């Protein structure tokens, strides 16, 4: 076995790029986009403005904001051939599989351009349409075409359900929370593809494939499933104890980077708590009990809720089915993925890590002889 190299499983602690897009202080629980703390952005900004910030490195002036809003609103519709193919897919196809396939098809049917930024805007505008169209195709409902007079979040919820939600601003802020998170698994996967100088549609297809995994973007879907199985706050302690006894993961807890409370989870929790004052929010009471009990059980290990723990409750509040949760994650993270891909290519070097060989050597080939009858 080659012992001249150390193995860093999961590349933990290994820096693979220099970036000015975002910064995470895992010890203090801080997330920063281009110098702005996430709490400041979700309080004062909107998804389009934050997207501009992540792509260009600074907040837009009025004309620049109008430009990005106009570009995103005008590129929402899908090519007719892609819609036709989506209608022929099996109705039980997972939304992430549909999204991955449709994005790949966009690489074929979208207008050809060498501008990574134009492709990034095109993908950011069209991913919500893919999700909304698949929701309605899957449920055999008439498609609702995009409207240019609505903002990014308003238009998505309108295309899903046929009405503009009065609380679309909360959904919009949730997209800001998910827009960027440093060199996570899907961003790294997309950056690897970007390092080969592949096109942006291939890069984002890679990212979606990585995000789909239950240990990454698929976690919020499994968190809601956990709440459904618990059913009542009276069952919380027995349920959690059973998971611990079996050595199974408690979904929505812990984070590779954050060693304290995930700031995104805290923000989501506060939003839901404010909504809960005036109306019942499904699963929220169970979530509070689970959080309290898990933190108590692991008080010496610094295990706290991550963004997946409360995001599913919020999406469920907006009537989004749980199997679509990860597509909402992708709908936001497309901004971070494309920003990292464009940034990495400025000082590009193709990724070529090593693996340590552990296997036989010196074997000699022997011809396989047939068995005589």
User: Shape from CA axes?
Assistant: globular
List SSEs in N-to-C order. Answer: EEEHHHHHHHHHHHHHHHH
Quickly give the structural class.
Answer: mainly alpha
CA-based gyration radius:
22 Å
Biggest sheet architecture: 3 strands, antiparallel
Number of helices: 16
Helical percent range? 55-70%
User: What's the number of structural domains?
Assistant: 2
Distance between the termini: 43 Å
CATH architectural type of the largest domain:
Orthogonal Bundle
In round numbers, the mean pLDDT is 93
Can you lay out the helices and strands and say which pair or pack?
Elements: E1 22-25, E2 30-33, E3 36-37, H1 38-44, H2 47-56, H3 62-74, H4 80-87, H5 95-109, H6 116-138, H7 152-161, H8 168-178, H9 185-195, H10 200-211, H11 219-230, H12 236-246, H13 263-278, H14 284-297, H15 307-317, H16 325-346
Antiparallel strand pairs: 1-2, 2-3
How would you sum up this structure in a few lines?
The protein has helices spanning 38-44, 47-56, 62-74, 80-87, 95-109, 116-138, 152-161, 168-178, 185-195, 200-211, 219-230, 236-246, 263-278, 284-297, 307-317, 325-346; strands spanning 22-25, 30-33, 36-37.
Describe it:
By secondary structure, the protein is mainly alpha-helical. The protein folds into two domains: 223 residues, Citrate Synthase, domain 1 (Orthogonal Bundle), CATH 1.10.580; 99 residues, Orthogonal Bundle (Cytochrome p450-Terp, domain 2). It is 55% helix and 3% strand. A three-stranded antiparallel β-sheet has the order 1-2-3. Helix 2 packs parallel to helix 16, helix 9 runs antiparallel to helix 10 and helix 11 crosses helix 15. The two termini are 43 Å apart.
